[in-house]
Amino acid sequence: MSNKKKGIYRVLIVDDETLIRNNLFRFFNKLGRELKISIELLQSENCFQCLNLIYQNFMENKYVDILFIDETMPIIKGSYVINLLKKLEHEKSFYIMKIISFTSYYLTKKKKIS
Questions:
Q1: Is position 46 within any domain?
Q2: Are strands 8-14 and 66-70 parallel, antiparallel or unpaired?
Q3: pTM attached to this predicted model
Q4: pLDDT (tens place) for every residue of the chain, 114 residues total
């Protein structure tokens, strides 16, 4: 069951970069005001905190509606969390939210000058 029936959208932002979390936080705050909807924002700086927050909310019959998760984080990648949540949903023991995975990591190659 979603929080939408109560008129609240719960969004969890997971990224190890504080700047990115803060920018997404501001974006969702502005979006909620402009669309006149209630958005409750949660933040996590790693996948351990993310899973803990999701579990704590689930145990309180609160659900995360949208999960924004960085793919490239230390120790555990975002895709591991996504696969775990999908497995739990498949076992019918968990409500699956909308998941958006992203990365701000990029690889640059230097061209050799001959």
A1: yes
A2: parallel
A3: 0.80
A4: 455 556 789 999 999 999 989 999 999 999 999 999 999 999 999 999 999 998 888 888 888 889 999 988 888 889 889 888 888 877 666 666 788 888 766 543 444 454
Q: Give me the number of domains the chain comprises.
A: 1
Residue 21 to residue 76: CA distance in whole angstroms: 17
- Collapse the DSSP code of 21 into the 3-class scheme (helix H, G, I; strand E, B; otherwise coil) and give the result: helix
Q: CB within 8 A of 107, min separation 6: which ones?
A: none
> Which two three-digit tokens encode residue 16?
């190890």
41 CB-near residues (< 8 Å, 6+ apart): 11, 13, 25, 28, 29
> What CATH code is carried by the domain that includes residue 29?
3.40.50.2300
Give me the amino acid identity at 5. Answer: K
Query: Which structural domain, as residue segments, surrounds residue 67?
Result: 3-102
